[in-house]
Protein 1
Amino acid sequence: MLVSSTPAVKKRKKTSAPSTSKDSKKKKRKCVELENACIPELILCADQLKKDPVKEEENAKPIYESVLEPKIELIEAEEVDLKPDNTIKVKKKKKKRKSEIVEKKLKEEIPTCNPDDSSKLETVEPDVVLIKSEPTTPEKPSVKVEPTEFTSLFNSNIKQELEEIDDAVDEHVCKKLSFKLSDSCIERYCTTLHCAIPPLFIHNIKNGIKSQLKTLHLKYLESEQGVLLRYTNIKFKERAARIVSISPELHFDISSLVTVFKPKLGAVLEGKVGSRDREKDLLLIIIRHHMSRDTSELEPVHKKRRVEHINDTTNDVEMQQSNGNGSTTATNGDIDESLYSRQLYVLGHDAMRKMAASSILICGLGGLGVEIAKDIILGGVKSVTLQDTKTTSWQDLSSQFFLRESDVGKNRAEASLPRLVELNEYVSTTCTTEPVSTELVSKFSVVVLTDSTRDEQLEIGDFCHANNIKFICANTNGVFGNIFCDFGEDFKVTDTNGEQVLSVMVSAVTKDGDGIVTCLDEKRHGFEDGDFVTFHEVEGMVELNECTPRKIEVKGPFTFSIGDTSSLSDYTRGGIVTQVKMPISVKFKSMREALKDPEVLPTDFAKFEQPYQHHICYLALSEYQKSHGSSPTPYNSADSEKFVGLCKEVNEKYSLGLEVNDKLCTEFANGCSGQLVGVQAFIGGSTAQEVMKACSGKFMPTKQWLYFDCAEVIPEGLTEADCKPTNTRYDGQILCLGKALNDKISDQKWFVVGAGAIGCELLKNFAMMGVGHNKGMLTVTDMDTIERSNLNRQFLFRSWDVTKMKSDTACNAVKEMNPDINVTSHQNRVGPETEKVYTDSFFADLNGVANALDNVDARSYMDRRCVYYKLPLLESGTLGTKGNVQVVLPHITESYSSSQDPPEKTIPMCTLKNFPNAIEHTIQWARDQFEGLFTKTAENCHKFITEPKFLEKQKSGGALMSILEGLRKDLTKELPTDFTDCIRWARLLFEENFHNTIAQLLYNFPPDQKTSSGALFWSGPKRCPSVIEFDANNNAHLDFIVAAANLRAFNYSIPSNRDRDFIKAQVATVSVPAFKPRSGVKIAVTEAEAENMHNDDESDSDKASVILEELNAKMDQLKSLNIQVADFEKDDDTNFHMDFITACSNARAASYRIAPANKHKTKLIAGKIIPAIATTTAVVAGLVSIEMYKMIQGLKDVEKYKNAFLNLALPFFAFSEPILAPKNKYYEVEWTLWDRYDIKGDITLQELLDIFENDHKLEISMLSQGVCMLYAFFMPADKRKERCGMKISELVELVTKKKLPAHKRALVLEICCNDTEGEDVDTPYINYQLP
């Protein structure tokens, strides 16, 4: 959208005649031509602005006024024509056309508006159509006004009316970002502007324009045109009036309109500007453009909306409430990796493209439906249509997080739509209130039913099965839930598990009837029976190279068979075997068939038989609801008996042949009313993943029934009276769990650590549960800010929240979901440095902690805090489609730190430096290159210049000498003065890394080199490299130069240059010295040699002195340098960080004949990105919320709790009891990690020793605090004697040489003890409480 095609030029003469349809279309076409004609000037203006943003107006104004404005004036005056090349030519004046005579006649028939007589303005009935092909005629006759006459009306009637609400504008627009207008005032504006009144917009006007203002396209602002938008502040009032007068011909949307006036508008909204005329102009312009835009014409080309027409009778409100372009793709037609980056690492590009072509229908917008819709919209399908005929009830508010109390009585889909629309600008989201029917579902690729009857399920299920439409039915009823999937008779799955393809190196292949492949013994192959593999780089048995995938049978961790190889050539050496994922076909039964013959996916192996009982219960529930109109009343014995009887009847009716468990059926009858947000999050997230599988064929679908329950959360002893609704937002929860537990939840105080993906989901769940809404409190901390890549899964954030603090934004969002809750946000990192904030009193006031962290260190720290303060902890995490939940209960279970993951595999140094054999090796090497060249080196230079004692802090020896040599090279010999110096440096770096170093390596170890045993040196994992000859015409080589030169320029604050042609021309002029291999150069072959060479660096003190003297002599000159450190940031595509690492890694891979990796894969490995998807996050957070109910009740029976591990890709769910805390023992005393010795009062060390000797029969042999040893039996006698007489607090201050902080109320002392027989015994620690 090019807004500068609307300059502040002279106003055209007024006219009272309306525009005909033909004229309107012509004007719109003229506007498109106008935009295109002005593009060169716009870009020129943008270039001027980018050169000096501080003086943007001065730079752009001459071009704007001298070139652009006259050109636009000529075009608008229709005195010129546009040539195909966007140049203009003057055209001859034409005589009056017949159409003008018709137009004159129309003027006589249609009354014009008298600016002085506003009483004649009639209202227009609401009749909104999003996509218009022809102008619509209002039901009531309306006054038609030419756009050019609007300014006159504005200056009279509307301006006068705005003056009457002047105080309201001041108070609400300037201070509260919202304002109120009467319905008649709104209708009057609409009538004057000759546009219909959108009902949704009236609602938005009356409730504030904040949400409208927030829909700014942040990415658009960063473009050249976005830069130019800032220039439009010039002559603000004149331009405002001008835009108002000609806007019908322009391609505006509300976001772009607000963007045009963003600088001034921002000041107005922040109360910094008080000009009421300007405020009125802004207010009127926003109303004008929002009401009159026809999105098929007014949207920018690359943001055109794709509206899924439900049918010809779709109501206008449904069509009005849509957004997005129906695609996950960015403006270049490919997937928007800045938004979907983490999800792409889960699904892959192919699956995402298939999803972007899928249209989804979700029926039922209760708590379950909105959870499914949220996850699917975040996932990036083409379109989502929301269908619902029900209105909002109080029970819905227990779990439907996009409904508000003010929505009670309104249609759930219509009320939820505006908030769902905000989730993803790429997904076209609409709603319909028509009943679900086969005609409706026929237009979609996937149909999801929730809140549906069995008759609807069977009718729609049969239709979908017959017409190859993917069908999913999901239900949640109290503590129970189920999912049914039917993807047709022949559904293709391209990847059953989502795991990375395995690849290992081959050491031998037998020539036999059943050939055996042996892999190198340094790595297990990891294959399974039935896998398919192919080969490449095999020497001798070349028939295997790129062969048709062969099915294998595993023989051992390093061997497997591949079938008959007897007819193949003899194997010589080498080769790489790679797993091939073969598509499989899955057959589904229709729901009608599956009801009688259920195939159930187990979720809890401790309840192995219950899913079949729940299958009966759900069949009975459908019959009960059909005959009684509702679910059984909780704890009503009569209803329960009826329900159990129905269970037995349906067991016979469907010939299931199961033995009905009366106890389980009664439990189901009592617990199937109401809604729990945790259950809906689990079922909803799982269902959304099934929808993605249906769209993409990625991962194995659920086949076909999944049943889930969490009956353990139901308190014992509930009665019918306990579960009666109270007409509050918590009724859905009260129906399940009773009012007493609901009241207890309201007084809870919990600490949520992290407001990222899991944190957002937890906060949403806790808000719906009402945690802390009475006397309690939710405290949330997160020290991160919001980034664009977060928006794909952290659903509490929007595009306009980017750069804001996560904790603040998340708390504000959940406060809107449930205004009752008490929530406080912090921006602190949890760790020793914030213990003055999170003190003993802070933790003493808590009921529990919920971790939502993304690193092990922070998790371990919070685990230690919870153990110390004896608080329950809910720990969770995700990795792609995998997730886990751990329950930590004081005095009962083990803690998070009780078990540890295996250490992360590291790449040997010699492999990285000289013998890479996988792309992971070259990427890590490139990452190290970046760190050494642009981070560490720049940091050393900066500190040397700014910190006088920098070198004194460095260790002596080889490390210091390396730093000095680097400083001399980068601050003297290779100090760049302009960008051409940076290009020269980059070219020589390329030569050194990919030619000279490789040539030296081949000089030391020629390709035919043999080891002492006679084997070829370059064999097995050692791949023989080749030198790379630089070629400026090779884009990969030039990529390296461009990235390296720009990073070098950044380090030295030299302006960057992205002109590849310029860089290519300059690099050709660089003189590159010829390389001659040197004798005596040591190259490490083994890891031990590499480590020894690293430690053997010697320092030359004389040489160091010379270098230091040379640097100090130039210190005055060096102080003028502005050295910048390039701290690695993987998600900024403009900083050249990933460009350099990708180009560097691929150049090295080319040298070693390793397949290259694109930037996307390189970012995953170099940035150590954790793949993530919203579905897994929702499921995990739902399980955490369920466990929270149990903790709040104070349940002590560990069998009631569930640790969970899941993988939605398989799908696989495993629930187990938490592991009990291991018990230790000395004498007859048993203790666990939750136990400790509590010592109160400031006593001497000797008194402490005596207490243990007398009370516990233990002799303390060593005593420490943190890393400081306070006492040890081997200390000199006089030292022991001196310390024994000191107070513990004094002793700690003496040894640590630090005063105890004022907030420190206790010390943790670790002890080693001997029993009476002198044997070492394990004991708890000491909690030494200061007075």
Protein 2
Amino acid sequence: MLWILTWVDLGRGIWEWYNGTAVLYVDLVTPLIVGVTMAIAAFFIYYDRLKGVRTSGLLTIYWILFLLTWALVFRTKVEQIQNGGLTTGEVMRIVTFFISYACVIAHFLMSFFVDLPPAYEPQKLNTSPQESASFISHMFFEWFSKMIMLGYKNPLVDNDLWDLIPDDKSGRISRRFNKTWSAEKAKYKNENEEVDDDTARFENTDVDVLIEQPGRKKGKPSLFKAMVRVFGPYYFLGSLLKVVSDLLTFVSPQLLSALILFTSNNAPVWQGYMLAVLLFVTAILQSIVLQQYFHVCFTVGMRMRSAVVGAVYRKAMVLSNSARKESTVGEVVNLMSVDAQRFMDLMTYLNTVWSGPFQIILAMYFLWQYLGAAVLAGLGVMLLLIPINALIARKTHQLQVRQMKLKDERIKLMNEILNGIKVLKMYAWEMSFKDKVKAIRDKELDVLRTAAYLNAVGSFTWVSAPFLVSLTTFAVYVLSDSSHILTAQKAFVSLSLFNILRFPLVMLPAVIAAIVQASVSMTRLSKFLAGDELDPDAVDHSPTAHGEVVEVDNATFTWGKKDEPILKNINLSVPSGSLVAVVGQVGTGKSSLISALLGDMDKVEGYVSVKGINLSGGQKQRVSIARAVYQDADVYLFDDPLSAVDAHVGKNIFDNVLGPRGCLKNKTRLLVTHGVSFLPQVDRIVVLVGGRVSEIGHYDELLEKNGAFAEFLRNYANHEDSESTDEEDVPPSSPPPIFEEELEPDVDADETASSDFKRQRTRTSSSDHCKSGKLRRRKTDRDIDIKAQQKKKDDKLITTETAETGNIKLSVALSYMRSVGYLICSTIALAYCLQNAAQVGSSIWLSQWSTDPLNPDGTQNGTATRLGVYGALGMTQALMVLGSSFSMSYGSVVASTLLHSKMLVRIFRAPMSFFDTTPLGRIVNRFSKDIYLIDEVIPRCFTGLLMTGFQCLSTFVVIVYSTPIFAVVVVPLLILYYFVQRFYIRTSRQLKRLESISRSPIYSHFSETIAGVSTIRAYGLQKSFMKQNEIKLDTNQMAYYPNIVSNRWLALRLELVGNLIVLFAAIFAVVEKGKINDGIVGLSISYSLQITMMLNWLVRQASELETNIVAVERVEEYSSVVQEAELVIDGSRPPSHWPAEGSIKFEDYSTRYREGLDLVVKNITIHINGGEKVGIVGRTGAGKSSMTLALFRIIESASGRISIDGLPISNMGLQDLRSKLSIIPQDPVLFSGSLRMNLDPFEEYRDSELWDALEHSHLKDYVTSLSEKLEHEVTEGGENLSVGQRQLVCLARALLRKSKILVLDEATAAVDLETDDLIQATIREQFSDCTTFTIAHRLNTIMDSTRVLVLDAGKVAEFDTPDNLLQAKGIFFSMAKDAGLA
């Protein structure tokens, strides 16, 4: 229609011209131009529909511009009609114009809606309205109003969140980033070689993308360049928007200048109203452009976080052992949380690096127009401030590096402590380790305190800078020439330009500091991502030439490129379908051999080929075995899976799964074992000594060689072997079930890989009979302890972290203020009040100065006085800022100290039930992200809230003082403002809570992945776990992204309120023309121009504080967890020599793990004399470990009591009790630090005593061989010691304590029989007069016990001497028979 009408106008004009009628050229050119543009618009409409584009921003802007420009033509046409005397041609043009204008209006209105989706596009559930929003809805973020309303009516929950748009999903972002980063690494590794086929391979896989190819030259790839290539184009769009916003910023001062001139001359009133409307329209346009700019920046930051988290997770999958030593779990978690957050924060204001100087140049240019060369004085002040800011930035950089190191160290230690918290409690070491954490935290707080004071000085310079610039400029201007008069126009237009200068002057140092922080994070991240990776070609997985599925030829392996080889000159070949046992003493390299075959070690030389592997091992052995069997692989590697099960279960597992009659009999099996009873049934035995293969052969062959292995067997297993062999000659007619309860489907490690397992269900294999019937298992004591008593399906072990709903409790804010100190809070508020009073006073003083009467010669009197008072008020303002900043810095560090210390103590004193039901990642998140918020973010929010709050108040006071009539609209505007921000805060607060809740699973999943990365690689489940990581990250971003949009939604609407204030202030200035002077007009409007930003910042700071103070709420939650009994109870402390005898009495004792669970120990009544050696046995799940936990009061009594030497242990403090008991746990727990610290964390013993303990624990020779001796650095988790060596360290701890009561909880399950015998001999010798509890799966270790306690289902089944129990032929007899001892 529009196209036809334009051609009608053109045709009419041509016809008139042809007939000699006078026609204006504009009547010919305009229809032609409009017709062409309409044709182009029609083409784009058709093209967009063809491509499935449902809304067009280009067309919407086109119709808006058409509407605005034709509004002037509309006015002209109306005047023509009013004037009359129209020709026929003019009437026709008017008619076609009105019809065309109506069509343009219709097109503009239709741009508010979007076309229906294409029919071929699939419908998605929970799709974000953003995907179907119109261009105008995008500009005003109106599509988000639905969630704002939903959040206002009811607290938001997970199901209310929308799915991410495809461009924001972590999978797509990670693939793009990894492809770019890999290309960058490839380019720098070989400068003369372009990215070749290896890089092309990165495009197709998620795993290989991070595996570097060996043999290339080392270089320094730039992570910054990779990020620019991935995120630069979209961020450049934001930069363009920033240019437009900056230009619009300088329009308002020019309009203010025109408005001040209007009030002092005789211009018509309509000009004043037009200027007021232009001020309003300019402000609206600037608001829209600025909020779109911020949206782009925050979105880029969010995407960058996705890339960082994804890249770190993928890198952790392939990191070499040497690189892993340099990056602890705590450090890597900080990369994913703190460092990624810094990149996000920087993106918001990074453009200030160029935008700040650009604004400064423009401001100085316009100032020159009003004040001339005097602005050079102000420029000089700015140049003088640069070195000060540079010094502050450099010092901040140094502090930042130091603080991050301390933070990493603290999180690393906390991670280790939480992983070993049960052992720490049993040793009564928790307070010692709490002090270690506190010592690191104190150093961190010292750095934080210094940084806070440095920031206070920075705040002083930032506030002083704009004032000093304006003061210097005004002073030079008025004092350089007596004819220089500071008029209202010059004063307040200059002041508005100085206010524009304030932002770049304030933000540039802050951005520099943020860049410094981000550069530290960039360096840390680059170092991690560029770290050495495992060589994917170390193990050849193609079929071997001779048919062997495992072949190792003269191979040497090391755990690190700079470390000594662990395995040397290994030669090994394993035929298909054979069962090979790997044996050797502790530390000979058995587990290392398994790792080498998996490709987890660095291959120095040699050849390794493994056709297809599956790994079984770890603490949940039976689950691991079942999982391995289910995979149907060619080669199975079993890393001592029978060590943590009793003899009965171990025998059944071997008979039915691993052995020659088991379901894997046709598979190739490599079994690392310390048990010799199974060796006669294996096809081949590999003996390792000192990292080398000592002997290889069948059981009988090795006996005939009469070597060291034969001697070992004769000494430790002669009787055991004969009995076992005799039994094996008779195949069991009905083998007992391996598992006695259905395999639980909620094992977390299996859930993460469920998709891979489901895919493999379609396989068929020779081991199908393994999967027939019900796969059952008997649970361990720990399973019974924690899970087995939960009968209700909805009674989950791990509690779900839930989000609080509703308003942030006042008690949370008061708690933080109380931690800061009420006196300090009052001082801060008073200082800000005085600061703003000085600021308002200086502005009013300037207004009065600008209207001082002129002398006949054109000069003013009292200039020096005016200038001096103005300067004094400004300095007062700066000093108040300095005082408030120092007070806030001091108070915030005090609050951080108290809140962290309180939570730390409560966590260390929490019962084990808390740790059993709380994922460690959730706790670590409290100590990392939430403490970071309390340390750095919340103080900044408080400062911003107070500053903007007082500034808004002072602005309203000034405007009402200038134009009292403005008070009429203040109340309605404030009501509108209140409702807008209340709508927002309810939604924003809940979104922040949901984001916090969904963040913890990311870190928990990462920690679990790191712990089992070898198993994940062995099963080939990298992609599955990476997908899980992406899902968890997307879930978190689904809460974070709405938070971004909610801020923009709010800012745009608040700025609309602020722009209305500008409009009314300008209109009232026009209305009051002649009644108020131009100085008052300048004062009123210049302040109103600031209110837009201030109102926005006020609500943002209030909401940011309210959402971030959730961290205080979360820390307070963990500062009020249920506590164990007191460590020391005054008045009920045992004597210092207690226990003298070590007698123990259980009197009708029962216990459970938590309220609501069944009893695990039931009505036990036994008396154990001092010095007795008691063995505790029972089928798995009988309650053996539960009794030891009860003795240490890890779990408390449900009924009855336990007495030691006649004193009820329930009446004494836990420190007094546990410090008098010793335990050698099944899982040896070591901590990063010196060997001395691991033996004696309290530093209670002399070196001679430490060496004596090491000698008796058979570690002296090893420690003596170390260069650092007792100061030898133990890595995280004791990974640089073998499992057996870690167990011997635990023995040394017990020897040092010399307790009268010793508990051995399956302490020798992970060591070879020779080491086991050494440990038992040491215990018999050194603890001869002690009461000893021994829980053992190897019954031969307790056959010399005084008495044996047999438990069954938590009750005492048998309790007598071993001989009597064997004669009774009860439960103990059957267990001994299974073990070949009866």
